[in-house]
Design brief:
This protein has about 525 residues and is mainly α. Helices cover about 65% and strands about 0% of the residues. It is built from 23 helices and no strands. Helix 5 packs parallel to helix 12, helix 9 packs across helix 20 and helix 9 runs antiparallel to helix 21. Belongs to the purine-cytosine permease (2.A.39) family. It is a multi-pass membrane protein.
Length: about 525
């Protein structure tokens, strides 16, 4: 194996210093405490024998140039030594590779199919919704270089030690859920291109799950290196899909429904597309913790934002276009009845054999979309507690892959329901959490900032009572104003025949209103 680190091509000086470990090694230790006066790396909850096995496993990872690091903070001397334009470009390419994927194409289909919106209405709601969500995700990404801690560990500075675990559980459900959706879409596409559809959807699910497990287990270096180039085949085949299918896009049929119902449907689809983007916020900083502290936050924010918007726009619009043609082209309707992935294959239909090849490329592009949540899930499991922290990230990655693979195999026939019920629901908690994070930063830490050395010390972190109460209040508002197939909130029901999904906005607002006074009282009474 070459001694050159993959990240050296991203502007990283890969020369090893005698007293400092490379990126793939465990961090050379600055003591970080577990809240009881002990070094968190000593494994206070593990027997010496089990601790020895864990250390041996991590040593094997390091010997094979894999990342053994979990949630430990990345110290300054362990980060990129050289920050170049390539390093900044990587931020743009990362998001393009992640998002220019079939799952976002199928998400765009929901506008015309589920909400009865025209091409124009669907396009405006999708792009503007993605823009709002991308602003949040891009801002959160800038905290990686500043702090050197993972996103969920950063959340402890607002939510506190114990309440933050609730957020971590929600984030794990979200990430594994998105991975489940990716696996199902991949399986649908590969099944559709197989002769007579003979290949089971289950085979495609297993293919993408195993591929993502391998790359995510290799860790940060291989993950970033893969995402740097993964966008190339995707941008080519998606452009081809536009070219061959655009003649069947229905650009003239208006949206259906009375004015109130139409307004509700527009808002609901806007919310789903917003949720697709905003749900990157709880893991965005994870991808940039190896960037040095001197990284320009403006450049990182801007490039992340552009990467997210470009990729979401391309994926959403082609999905909306394909779905708009269902009513006027029976072959599209027949394909969609077999699954959203089959409609993508049908869009390549005029190209015959080459179209099937392009469909396979689109399906395999979901690997790039599934790797980030798979990787971050391994880190986030460790945030759940001291015991979980001692389990190597690679093992948690393996457990996460097993969970979402089994769930995908079981739920592969209900992708549309999963999309409409799951995505918006997951967006609620992120919007609420972000409101609290934002106010903590600009109201209570505007002058004092953060002490990054106490990220793992419960006695120095906020107690989190104010954040927890605000989080619950935000959820109450979200539930009252949500609009899902299985439940429509009493306030949401007032808008149109099917309600309007306002959970994101009301949850954000309610949490934002109650958090400042509660936090002020918490600081006065508890001092932290």
């Amino acid at each position: 194996m070459s001694s050159e680190s993959p990240l050296s091509t991203l502007g990283v000086n890969s020369e090893k210093e005698p007293s400092k470990t490379p990126f793939t090694d465990r961090p050379s230790h600055t003591p970080e405490y577990d809240g009881e006066g002990r070094d968190a790396a000593d494994g206070p909850f593990l027997s010496p024998r089990i601790a020895a096995y864990v250390r041996r496993f991590e040593t094997q990872l390091i010997e094979y140039n894999l990342e053994a690091r979990g949630i430990e903070r990345v110290q300054q001397h362990e980060r990129m030594k050289k920050l170049t334009w390539v390093s900044y470009l990587q931020a743009f390419l990362l998001w393009v590779s992640i998002n220019l994927a079939a799952n976002n194409i199928t998400l765009g289909m929901l506008g015309p199919v589920v909400y009865g919106l025209s091409f124009l209405d669907s396009a405006l709601c999708a792009v503007l919704g993605a823009l709002v969500g991308a602003l949040v995700a891009s801002w959160m990404a800038t905290w990686g270089p500043v702090s050197g801690v993972r996103t969920m560990a950063f959340g402890r500075y607002t939510m506190g030690w114990w309440p933050s675990k609730i957020v971590v559980i929600l984030n794990l459900i979200q990430m594994l859920g998105y991975s489940l959706i990716d696996c199902v879409v991949c399986g649908q596409i590969l099944s559709a291109v197989s002769p007579n559809g003979d290949m089971s959807v289950a085979v495609g699910i297993v293919i993408i799950a195993v591929s993502c497990w391998v790359i995510a287990t290799f860790g940060y270096q291989v993950f970033h290196y893969y995402e740097r180039f993964a966008f190339l085949p995707q941008i080519i085949v998606v452009s081809i899909l536009y070219a061959v299918s655009s003649s069947k896009f229905d650009l003239s049929t208006p949206s259906s429904g009375d004015p109130r119902t139409l307004a509700g449907n527009r808002l609901s689809f806007f919310s789903i597309c917003l949720s697709a983007a905003i749900t990157y916020a709880p893991l965005a900083a994870d991808f940039f913790v190896y960037y040095p502290e001197r990284t320009s936050r403006v450049k990182l924010f801007s490039l992340s934002l552009v990467g997210l918007i470009v990729s979401f726009t391309m994926a959403f619009l082609v999905g909306i276009g394909l779905a708009s043609g269902i009513s006027s082209h029976p072959e599209y309707g027949a394909a969609y009845s077999r699954g959203a992935g089959a409609l993508i294959v049908e869009g390549f239909g005029p190209l015959h054999g080459f179209g099937k090849f392009c469909s396979v490329v689109v399906a395999l592009g979901l690997i790039a979309n599934t790797i980030p949540p798979t990787y971050s899930a391994g880190v986030d499991f460790q945030v759940l507690g001291r015991y979980a922290e001692k389990v190597p990230r690679a093992i948690w990655n393996t457990i996460g892959v097993i969970i979402y693979t089994v769930c995908a195999l079981v739920g592969r026939s209900n992708l549309s329901d999963i999309f409409t019920n799951f995505l918006a629901l997951m967006g609620y908690w992120v919007a609420i959490w972000f409101a609290i994070i934002l106010e903590e930063r600009f109201i209570f830490r505007f002058r004092t900032g953060y002490n990054w050395n106490v990220w793992n010390d419960p006695s120095k972190l906020p107690v989190g009572v104010a954040a927890f109460v605000a989080f619950v209040v935000g959820w109450v508002g979200a539930i009252l104003c949500m609009a899902q197939v299985w439940y429509i909130g009493p306030l949401s029901r007032l808008v149109g025949e099917y309600g309007a999904d306002m959970g994101n906005y009301v949850g954000f607002t309610w949490a934002g209103l109650v958090y400042p006074p509660l936090r002020y009282v918490e600081l006065r009474m508890l001092g932290r």
